[in-house]
Automatic annotation (TrEMBL):
The keyword rRNA processing does not apply. CDD domains: STKc_MAP3K-like (cd13999). InterPro entries: Kinase-like_dom_sf (IPR011009), Prot_kinase_dom (IPR000719), Protein_kinase_ATP_BS (IPR017441), Ser-Thr/Tyr_kinase_cat_dom (IPR001245), Ser/Thr_kinase_AS (IPR008271), Ser/Thr_Kinases-Pseudokinases (IPR051681). This is Serine/threonine-protein kinase STY13. Belongs to the protein kinase superfamily. ATP binds at residue 53. The gene is LOC115741204. The keyword Transmembrane helix does not apply. Residues 26-290 form the Protein kinase domain. Residues 326-336 have a biased composition (Polar residues). It comes from Rhodamnia argentea. It comes from the Eukaryota. It catalyses: L-threonyl-[protein] + ATP = O-phospho-L-threonyl-[protein] + ADP + H(+); L-seryl-[protein] + ATP = O-phospho-L-seryl-[protein] + ADP + H(+). It holds the Pfam family PK_Tyr_Ser-Thr. Keywords: ATP-binding, Kinase, Nucleotide-binding, Serine/threonine-protein kinase, Transferase.
Amino acid sequence: MGSANGFYSVGEFDLEGKWLIDPKHLFVGPKIGEGAHAKVYEGKYKNQTVAVKILHRGDTPEEIAKREARFAREVAMLSRVQHKNLVKFIGACKDPVMVIVTELLLGGTLRKYLLNMRPSCLDMRVAVGFALDIARAMECLHSHGIIHRDLKPENLILTADHKTVKLADFGLAREESLTEMMTAETGTYRWMAPELYSTVTLRHGEKKHYNNKVDAYSFAIVLWELIHNKLPFEGMSNLQAAYAAAFKNVRPSVDNLPEDLACIVSSCWKEDPNDRPSFSQIIQMLLHYLSTISPPEPVIPQRIFTSKNSVLPPESPGTSALMATRENSGDTSTSEMEPRSRSFFFCFNQCY
């Protein structure tokens, strides 16, 4: 329903009219990812190829209220924060189902890109360049008072040329407030900051104080992973890794890192959040390091092989699957390889 000021009421927030998706112009194609709370499809909106995230509303009144509130937060943040290293928001609608539409990035997730490279590692300049993309996205979020809370390779998407990384999935993002108490154990365990736990074990869902420095810790783990192309805390389960980091102050080894990079990583994952640098400082440190290393030798870009869609773990929201891998039967016909037309997609309105 519209209003005189051009805003539309969507649950717990007002969505500006220009961001309201008209379902009649939305066409949904093949599923490209699935998580615990959403499915992501390739789609078309007004002849633009897009990613369509359709959120599960839930079954119980409590579940429905919780997911609608999460949807409202995510859309509110996406609609007001724009940056070249954030996935571009196109619009959303709440009825007939909760839908978020964003640009479709064709390079796949950083997780899949790194897995396809193993056991090789990224060129150091490429790794640091990706880290700068991530840090700039986080600096933008923090400057708007937003904590992402789920920074990890699954939520980082590459452009088609594999030269730029963009941050996705605001499902767990929250606005930072000096007085707000936030949910503990939020995020994905292996990349989660130690202060999300306590020496007195918190029951899941209890509230405690923390600030945007939780993202600096997660960034350190991602940076370590970019450089080594190994799973951090290898040999441990997600819970074991979180316990070791929180209660034993265990961190991945920095012994094989250049001194400047080791300093950056170590400062970002310090136990005391107040000792960790801001993302503005992290960017300056990364730029300084980049200026000290010589240009790389020309290399032939590695071909990335995509595989069948994988179902994301329950702790990973659906938007992290924004990648151009589609389900297939293994015997793709010639006609299916031809440029896609509008008829390839089904009308969103007809299905809901």
